[in-house]
Amino acid sequence: xxxxxxxxxQAAQGAPDDDSADSPDNTSxxxxxxxxxxxxxxxxxxxxxxNGLSPHPVAPPILGMANLRRLTVxxxxxxxxxxxxxxxxxxxxxxxxxxxxxGLTRLPVFEGTLDTPVxxxxxxxxxxxxxFNGNGHDFDIRTILRPLLYVPPSMSLGxxxxxxxxxxxxxxxxxxxxGGTDGLVTIEDLLEQVVGDIEDEHDVxxxxxxxxxxxxxxxxxxxxxxxxxxxxxxxxxxxxxEIDEEEIDTLGGLVFMLAGHVPARGEVVQxxxxxxxxxxxxxxxxxxxxxxxxxxxDE
Length: 299
Prior knowledge:
Shape: globular
Region (Disordered): 1-28
Number of strands: 13
Strand content: 15-25%
Helix content: 25-40%
CATH superfamily of the largest domain: CBS-domain
Structural class: alpha+beta
GO molecular function, one term: flavin adenine dinucleotide binding
CATH class of the largest domain: Alpha Beta
Oligomer: single chain
Order of helices and strands: HHHHHHEEHEEHEEHEEHHEEHHEEE
Distance between the termini: 54 Å
Protein name: HlyC/CorC family transporter
Keywords: CBS domain, Repeat
Number of helices: 13
Radius of gyration: 23 Å
Domain CBS: 77-139, 144-204
């Protein structure tokens, strides 16, 4: 069993030893999904750069049922800074405004800070019990609270999906090792890893994560997944030796790593492979929007 396990790990990395590759025992002992993963796994051969850039466009993220086992909650959760939540002290007007402005149908409810959640409020429950016309009984958000799930960032998507189905709770808060809130994930986030983006009428603006101003110039949200932006522009931005790909998930995260601090509005951050990032919207804690200028090669 040890030889089989070692051979599978080497094959998944795309660089098996000659002895294990020629062994019929290793081939016959592999399962169906293992052979599929090996066929799709990229090799470890270095890709030559052209003008400092990869000659091969970055492929978009792979969708499918395998993601439920391969990915964890940490890979798909919304970071704490982007969570839309409501305090338990909110009155009816505040809750109506938050539902209208956000376009969401479920909101986590907290007491004091997001690190002390008390449940979630559902738009349907609120509308049925209190309505939107200002009439009805005295409002207390505690009377319409529903329970939340609390999960670690290391939980696999498949396990969480089963738990959501069993408990009939479609929202979970991601809790860090200290018991604080680290992020949020919904059942829609899980399903999108299998079938792709699920958009409704409220997702129109959110879907515009980036736009092209002119050839070689893009405007993008800092929270846009880096892999998606790379696929959109056909360029790999993490191949340089100074960049640790494992530590970056978003375009803003890449700029933060390159700058070494939270850059201010108007600051320009240079990429070692040529592109430059201009911060066009930010606050003291994070970057919000960027203008990316990519070298355009004349052919």
